[in-house]
Write a structure and sequence with these properties.
With about 375 residues, this protein is an alpha+beta fold. It contains 9 helices and 5 strands. The protein has a 5-stranded mixed sheet. Helix 8 (about 270-290) links the parallel strand 1 (about 255-265) and strand 2. The two termini are about 40 Å apart.
Length: about 375
């Protein structure tokens, strides 16, 4: 447990923090004014307001904030005539317990728990029956923080798995592409050697072709550097091409009709781009069939120009149907990852009136910047 690292991507401050401050500041002031049994009224209010500021750093510095807040409130009853922790509005300290387990490391959790236990024990030595209730509240906050942390870590692991799988697929596609270029260079080199004695011009032409193929292979290899793969060997089956998208129209016997339209010069696309377009279209159709309630039609459009290729997959399902919203689902995450690795973009969202649309734009060269 001590070796457990801090939770990643802890936000510094968000709007909810300022909303908490806006709620607790007037609440502390009102309690200080109208609560008749509050000892050392001004001091309690000042101390509570000072400790309230620890909420702003509870995610990035959870141990330090717990040590400051609970360490002070544990000692305060013995050295001051009044104690801010006796204020009802000091309940915001529970949020520090939650943040300690949610965002802190294992070492932070152990050390911070000691400060919390000291505070509860000190309160029990003065108030008697507060020990059990205090430990119950703090334990509940810590348990909630652990549950949220476990869920976030599980989702992060699943997202990483999806991204890694997509990179593995792209690596396989790149392998096929580079192998194609190298084979073409080898054949041209053999032809040039055979014809060099009788036809010098043929050898020069072969060198030009080899140079072009080498440039394309180098571009693909540079893209491959960005791909992270597992240690296990990947399946090296032939990769699909953009022409294979037309097969999606007759693939399903039940469900909405799938119409495919291909426009522009799609014959000279790099294999990585063609394979990516097929994968994106395939995943989009799968998502539409899964989530597009009462859909009757799915339209796939691929249009190419001199610099880019645009894929659009749209359905006419109910807008209120269950769709990936907020943070993208695992399927859409994989699609975004594939498009990003090729220097393109992929977006998805509801149509203005009905249905859902996925739009992807890939550079024709197929190599990310």
């Amino acid at each position: 447990m001590l070796a457990e690292p801090r939770a990643p991507h802890a936000p510094a401050r968000v709007w909810r923090d300022w909303a908490l401050i806006a709620v607790f500041v007037p609440a502390i002031l009102l309690e200080g004014i109208f609560r008749p049994d509050l000892p050392w009224r001004v001091g309690c209010v000042v101390i509570a307001l000072a400790l309230l500021s620890t909420l702003l750093w509870r995610r990035t510095q959870p141990l330090a904030m717990v040590a400051i807040a609970f360490g002070f409130t544990a000692v305060a009853p013995f050295v001051l005539p009044g104690d801010a922790c006796h204020m009802y509005t000091a309940s915001f300290l529970v949020l520090l317990c939650y943040a300690l387990i949610r965002w802190g490391s294992g070492r932070d959790a152990v050390i911070g728990s000691a400060f919390v236990a000291a505070k509860v024990a000190a309160a029990g030595s003065i108030g008697g029956g507060e020990v059990v209730a205090g430990f119950a509240v703090m334990f509940a906050a810590a348990t909630l923080g652990a549950a949220v942390r476990f869920r976030a870590a599980a989702r992060l692991r699943e997202l990483d798995r999806v991204k890694l799988l997509e990179r593995e697929r792209l690596a396989r596609d790149l392998h096929d592409t580079v192998a194609h270029h190298v084979s073409a260079m080898a054949i041209r080199a053999q032809a040039g050697i055979a014809a060099s004695a009788s036809q010098p011009g043929a050898a020069v032409e072969a060198l030009r072709v080899i140079e072009a193929e080498a440039s394309r292979a180098l571009a693909e290899m540079r893209a491959m550097v960005r791909v992270m793969r597992r240690d296990q060997p990947a399946e090296l089956a032939p990769s699909p091409r953009v022409a294979d998208i037309e097969r999606l129209a007759g693939r399903f016997r039940a469900g909405p009709d799938v119409d495919v339209e291909l426009r522009g010069d799609l014959d000279n696309l790099p294999p990585t781009v063609g394979s990516a377009l097929y994968r994106l279209a395939q995943e989009s159709v799968t998502n539409a069939r899964r989530h597009a309630r009462h859909a009757t039609r799915i339209e796939i459009s691929v249009a190419a120009d001199d610099t880019s290729v645009r894929l659009r997959v749209s359905d006419d399902g109910e807008t209120g149907a269950v769709r990936p919203a907020g943070s993208p689902g695992f399927g859409l995450t994989g699609m975004m990852e594939r498009a990003d690795l090729l220097g393109g973009t992929c977006e998805a969202g509801p149509n203005p009136e009905r249905g859902w649309t996925v739009t992807a734009v890939l550079p024709r060269a197929g190599v990310g910047a």
